[in-house]
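User: Sequence recovery, please. Input:
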């Protein structure tokens, strides 16, 4: 992302990236994110691994991700913002 941001900046093209934690989904989608990791399933126990978010949520809503990278980032309101990573991670990176 940073390479593209530097390469495309002379053309007034901004490049940023969003890094979410686990995102909620409908029941027909598979849940595959660290906050939902379990151990001990083979022996019938269900022990939760503490790989979860710092904030008290297992996963965020898709709308939360969309809002973070929403209209402000796509409009002229953020015309000089380029080359950033935006964590929408409920504090999971800070927790490590």
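Assistant: Recovered sequence (96 residues):
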């Amino acid at each position: 992302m940073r390479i593209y941001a530097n390469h495309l900046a002379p053309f007034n093209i901004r490049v940023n990236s969003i890094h979410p934690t686990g995102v909620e989904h409908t029941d027909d989608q598979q849940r595959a994110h660290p906050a939902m990791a379990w151990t001990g399933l083979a022996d019938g126990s269900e022990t939760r691994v503490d790989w979860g978010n710092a904030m008290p949520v297992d996963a965020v809503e898709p709308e939360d991700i969309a809002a973070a990278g929403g209209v402000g980032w796509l409009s002229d309101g953020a015309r000089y913002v380029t080359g950033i990573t935006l964590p929408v991670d409920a504090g999971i990176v800070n927790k490590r």
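The chain has one domain: 2-95.
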